[in-house]
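Carbonic anhydrase: structure, please.
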Amino acid sequence: MQRFPEYLLAGYRSFMGGRYTAERDRYRELAANGQQPRTLLVACCDSRAAPEIIFNSSPGELFVVRNVANMIPPYEPDGQYHATSAAVEYAIQVLKVENVVIMGHGRCGGIQAALSPSSTPLSDGDFIGKWMKLLKPAAEQIQTSSLLTAGERQTALERVSIRNSVSNLRSFPFVKAREVEDGLRIHGAWFDISTGELWIMDDETGDFVRPTL
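Here you go.
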């Protein structure tokens, strides 16, 4: 048996002696009655942008789905493997979440890959390359702008990607039905890793603004 990482065991010991002890009753309630999260949160895999930490969430509050560049693909009932779409379906149809938040972040490696795709795949499967092609039209348009710096192009595509995922989410018939029938709310957000600032997407204009805290 391979040795389990000691720093993870140390973290687990700290968790058991701290947060789990403080929230033991909550965990027992969740074990007995199941989860009823109010929000589906689609976030990036990036280790610097953990939604449970950013929103200081308690156990059972968020149904979190993480993938490279926090993207939601368009509705494609083609019988293939669609992990993100499956999670969206479960959260909306079974858990009946009230909100969906798609949260991007600054300095996203996936977005950088979309802006500067490598000519050499990371593996024979080229999984990241194929995944990031969801943003190819937007990336090419932003990349050709001579008025933007490299950093501005990066931030622009990070935010355009969020708007694109909101649009893709609404291509799912059951999502649109929930919006109409019982007011499912869909939000976009962008987190700045370097400053901790959270920007919220205006649903009408698509602009990102700082919330009043």
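Notes: The chain has a mean pLDDT of 98.
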